[in-house]
Amino acid sequence: MNKLRFSGVAMFLVLCAVVFLVLCAGELAAQLPTTQLKSLSRVFLTVGSEADMSIASSADGDEITALRFSHPGITAELLIDAALPFDDSVQPRYGHFHVRVANDVPAGRYDVWAVGRLGVSNPRTISVHPEPTDLLSPSHDVAAPTELPLEKILQANASIAQRDFYHIHVDENQDLSIDLIAQQVDSRMIATAELRDADGRLLSVLTGSDHVDLTIPLPVGLAADYLLFVHDVLYRGGNEYPYGLVLHASDAVERASTHRSDERLVRSISAGAVEASQPADERSDDMESPRELAIPGTATARFDSASDVDYFQCQLTKGQSVAIEVLSERLGQPTDARLTLHRRSTDADGVVSWQQVAAGDDSFNLSDGPMSFKSTDPVINYTADVEATYRIKVQDMDSGEMLGKTQSYTLSVTPLSPSLKLLAYLPYDHRDINVTRPSGVRVLRGGLQPLRVVALRQNWSGPIELNVSGLPAGVHCAPVTMPAEHSVAQLNLRADEDAAASVAAIEVNAKASIGDQAFSIVATPTTVQWEKDAQRNSLRTRLVSQLLVSVSDLDVEPITIGMDDPMPIVVNKGDKAKLAVKLTRRAGGEKTPVILRGRDVPAGVTARDVTIAADQDTGEYTLDVTANAKPGTYRIWLQGETKVKFAPNPQSLQRATQYRDRLQKMRDDPNLSDQHKDLDAAIQTANKRVESAKPQANPRDFTIFPASPMVVLQVN
Questions:
Q1: Res 285: pLDDT
Q2: Distance between CA 346 and CA 470 in Å, rounded?
Q3: What is the pLDDT of residues 303-333, one digit of tens each?
Q4: For residues 74 and 125, is the Cβ–Cβ distance under 8 A?
Q5: What would the DSSP string read from start to end of 591-614?
Q6: What's the whole-model pTM score?
Q7: Which pLDDT band, with edges at 50, 70 and 90, does 400 fall under?
Q8: Hey, which residues does 511 pair with through a beta bridge?
Q9: What stretches of 171-241 adopt beta strand conformation (E)?
Q10: Radius of gyration of the chain, Cα coordinates, nearest whole angstrom
């Protein structure tokens, strides 16, 4: 085989990756420490198997004692180390587990959370397959590539500033393809794959993108050997860049769908869960012979090339209202579809013409602070003004060739009716939304945790009653009504001063009425996958199976913001509304100023920052309701900002000190003089453990952003 060299462009990208790693080495500013799970040592598991799994990368991952999976058939047992010298108790190997996947666990993707001293983490994804899985360190020597076997999933981490080399053998007339899985398991990796023949000649190059993984088809014909080069597009790598490779028969559609489209883990958070697209029914690229659709009806198709245009038609009666929708980007396809609707008409001479009556591009774009809920899938809501035949034109505006030549989609035409979907997430509070990152949840005694709810409305704008179920003992959440025409609301989880330690899955339940019909729905949880960075100017988000919250009985919230009178405030345009604020100061927050900022304040209402002095526990916040304010009911809240003293984990030092003191007491016992040598060695090791625990036990300065209770503001 020929030796292959980096191109000049590749070397430039390597330098960019090195600079990126240096710039991003530091952690972002945070609130009180809460576990952030970044990556696991294994993300691919086999049905009915057992394997060791550990925390590969985390922030504030102190004393992680459990992994919690979204399927009860996947369990993890914490590994145990031998007891310390002169101590009968076993020692937990924090962050290291033995995982079992039951035989009845269906193949698919599941969420996993880490639970430890500093709360429950954000979720990450694991992928369970019927095929065997294996970890490997791939070859970086093109002359000795790693063998890629058939129907076995190999997991590796992308290598910093290097390419990973694989060898594939194809028999005569064997139709095989390779799936490269990264985005589907919450990897940071944006994969690039180069397929070459045995002599190193380039056959194809494919590059993924956020949420889009690769399928690499292999040539069919004579028996041959191929080389596959894999790397991150910017040559980044490490524990947060895992990927899987599986070589399989190209017609293994059912098997491949295990790690492709998933109604719970769609590409963009938009209109909620969707079903995976099936193979195309038939060709639909002939404008003169479009595919006929009944109502309601769906059709599946593909964009066979960058210039491919597909045509469908349906019959609409006068006054009939329909929703015409494409599902593609939400199914993980690298598409930017566009819809155009034309109506057929015939003149007095019998000449047929088509008139454009509607067009649709991006279907949804709603932002709630750091979270952006959007999709490039188009939707047209249309009411026919005459009875006629209507032709639907579907095309892909993304003409890029690097992601593959064909992308699939599903087109649906359904009666237009009012609908509502809700998304819920636990925000990472900060005055600057640009520092939002994946973060777990830890509600301290006396503390308050905001919970945000976003409404995706279609053809309906009524009020929505929200409440939270499944709350652990000692945690409360007052119900909230999202006003008519509003799309965002906030609930607040509040822990009692004596709340017990717990981890619980909660649900946001909603009640509403459309006309005379009352209905109930449950909000779909969402999560932040990755924060913004030097290559990405927006957050990566996805749907998640559960909302988990953790309550700590070892820590107390340093400062809580309360309201003397949280009753609804009624104010006329042109007047002022005054909020009486009361602080509860506890250990670490006794003498510190608190800045108060209005949040979710409506247009036309001016809210200026107010500071409560370090020696004060009460203050007043003023809202100026201008003449331009729109009358209505609003729910606002105050976000505080202050610095507190807080020790992340004093218990670790207590345990280390108690053990060291026991050893020292034994060393002073004359009856144990024959064990002085072993005791001295144990004490020396124990002293190191004490020193190692001190940083987590010493109070440090933290900037926190506590939230106030909600206040109902009625503007007349």
A1: 73
A2: 61
A3: 877 778 999 999 999 999 999 999 887 776 7
A4: no
A5: S--EEEEEESPPTTEEE--EEE-T
A6: 0.87
A7: low
A8: 465, 520
A9: 176-181, 191-197, 202-207, 214-217, 224-232
A10: 29
